[in-house]
Amino acid sequence: MASMDPKAVLEGRVPGRPPVGLILGMTVSGLCAVVALGTDAALGGAGFWVGVLLAILPIPVLIALSLTLDRLEPEPPRALAFSFMWGAGVAVLGALVLNTAGMLYVTVPIFGETEGHFVSAAIGAPIIEETLKGAVLFGMLWFRRNEIDGFADGIMYAAMVGLGFAMMENITYYMRAFEDGGAQQLQAVFILRGLIAPLSHPLFTSMTGLGVAYAATHRRGQIVAPLAGLLGAMVLHGLWNGAAAFGLAGLGVVYLLDFCVLVALIVIVFVERRGTVRRIEAYLPMYGGTGLVTPQDVRMLRSIPSRRAARRWARSVGGAPAARAMVDYQLAATELALLHKRADRGVADQRWFVTRRDSLLELMSLARQAFLRTPPRPGAGLRSGPPWAHQGPSGFLPPRPPGPYGT
Length: 407
Fold this sequence. Notes:
mainly alpha, transmembrane, transmembrane helix, membrane
């Protein structure tokens, strides 16, 4: 596949073109994160390093758990990384400046010291923080809406933004806990924020992600849906921040509410995944005449376990190159089904649809050819065919050599 960049095709971008906007955004986000960390370091002393360690500690696990929901049609790693960095950089530094200014010049002068802090936490902070976190999602809706194929994508990007923001915010909380109450208070705060409720910010921002995803995949609600999602994020965030004023009862209510939201989001992802599987079964058979897909191949594509088994088989047959070709084939086939989903909903320009369809079919063809050209390992049993096609043909079954009489 030397003449084609599979990643560029799958991500729907121009091959070989430097992602200038992404590079600029990552640079700005990184600089903002450095400034925010520098501010904490200047104020925190030894507690700063304790806060950094504890804040980073659960992040790899949380990212891995989030990515398990995105296995059928994974999002581009560079876009996920940018979303995380936006949350950890631009959103955090902007919130630090605006929250501080709002409390000093608006809420405290108007409501007094005690009530001013409560108003700032329950109303001001949710509005500012969710707007800043949601800005990157609105940017994707404007510049990269074709990358958002459904609610799962909106949730994934929102989760990355929220995890980046939460990591940086937790540094401050852990630092203050260590300085004010020592190891005992630090332990309590870490259990609360790092273990019991580590997904609060991702849950809040997922409301914005749902609204943005709806707007990206439907003709109606282009303005209302994202704004409604942003409002939902602000409300959830405000309830969370304001619950502390009502003691354990208030905290119990918001913990239960967030748990219900988490369950609902997981259900949405799995229901949408089943819808994608149905589209694979509905649309891919129409390309049977190309020789790129057979009914047996469709059965392989429609479930994650069978896809994983196909990749293992490909690796056993031809090593890493064959496995990579199988991955490209599977992802291109899934993107093809999602492309038809956009067309059904009337959000795919006809010219773009044809261009995108042809590039995905070409990638499937080149991936299949790359697999078949890969020298099989000794004893791999390539001629016996893929394990999912014992009862019929497959695009990954090499042509039979002609017999002695040309049959």
